[in-house]
Amino acid sequence: xxxxxxxxxxxxTVGTEVRAGITTFLAMAYIIAVNPALLSAAGIPVGAAxxxxxxxxxxxxxxxxxxxxxxxxxxxxxxxxxxxxxSLTAAAGGDWxxxxxxxxxxxxxxxxxxxxxxxxxxxxxxxxxxxxxxxxGLGIFIALLGLINGGIVVNDDSTLIxxxxxxxxxxxxxxxxxxxxxxxxxxxxxxxxxxxxxIAAVAGVPLGVTPMPTGIVQLPDFTTFMAPFQTAADGSGxxxxxVFVNPTLLVFVFSIMLSDFFDTMGTAVAVGKQGDFLDEDGxxxxxxxxxxxxxLAASVGGLxxxxxxxxxxxxxxxxxxxxxxxxxxxxxxxxxxxxAFFSPLVSMIAAPATCGALVxxxxxxxxxxxxxxxxxPLDGIPAFMTIIGIPLxxxxxxxxxxxxxxYTLMAVCTGNASKVKPLTWxxxxxxxxxxxxx
Length: 438
Known about the structure:
One of its GO terms (molecular function) is purine nucleobase transmembrane transporter activity. Keywords: Cell membrane, Membrane, Transmembrane, Transmembrane helix, Transport. This is Permease. It holds the Pfam family Xan_ur_permease. It is found in: Cell membrane. This protein is mainly alpha-helical. It has one domain (2-437). Helices cover 64% and strands 3% of the residues. It has 20 helices and four strands. The protein has helices spanning 2-5, 14-28, 30-39, 46-68, 80-91, 96-115, 118-124, 128-149, 169-186, 192-203, 239-244, 247-275, 287-304, 315-320, 326-339, 343-346, 355-364, 377-392, 396-413, 422-437, and strands at residues 74-76, 153-156, 160-163, 309-311. Strands 1-4 form a two-stranded antiparallel sheet. The chain has a two-stranded antiparallel ribbon with strand order 2-3. The N and C termini lie far apart (46 Å). 59% of the residues are buried.
């Protein structure tokens, strides 16, 4: 095991990897409840959505660990699952199986782009300043997700967001999670992120935030599996065939593909920063293997009826907790598979308990901001647009797109157009198209 995962070579231990795997799972566990709740709006049975969510995440996370040997976990991506539930299914005439066929196809297209080297080439075409900016923007985004989970940042009709109520039990659990996690970090307690989640979850019991389980075992429901190849709701043939005869659905294939394409780039940089697998130029080591699994995961998510499965930014919590190898991912994946049978117990880890873990990861990712030269407009302005674009648009892909386009504009304005690589121009065009058709 040590030789296969290179545990000692990367300065880790089996115990650390196991703990990091548990930490990553707990930081992601909310997806087991949230994804089925969203997909049920598309008409997918909740029990079947729980099964597909757990199995897609478990299988692809284990594959990520075995094939890429990096501490990255996969699960149904937030944002795309909402698109599937509220937009894509409607465009497919209310047929969620056709919607899953769109997801299946966009995953195959991304996989083809990886195998031909295009996706990796585009990542390498990203300027160094933007790579650093993506990490910083992701850090703020991750922290924002945590603060929202903890009820510390809430919606407001007048100001869009505002400070939550200190009398709200969710807020109290979120604050406990943050304070405990940071305190344990200061005192250098091993596994401080995991302990922060556990202590906050326990504190949430008397406050009514941590739900008591309604049972222990829930048998899997596999009715959504092979959704793209099931007969469409109108009985006209296989669901996947209907995608090719509907121009609107083909547009969805392109737009979702672009989101998947760049979300993973940002996530890989973020986790690579915490997991110590970025080189001095900000390139992600073993990126090709990571992208192959991630692209396949998107397709498998559609095949299983779980929406697009993607590399989760919450993986950074496990990397921050010491995870350095694929063993972390294998542990996370195995727990996801077990969760398909014990989902009532998993639901006890409420989102507010993970607030501190995500805020801590955001803090840890801030140190790279000093590597950005803000005195140089060509580096500083695109970096700034990326940093604010990711959290303020609530979209990794959109933030990256704003950074790409701004970089090209600044290069032209500063007389450095020759520095813009041909692939960067192509990415700019793709983003402009996606913004216009969104």
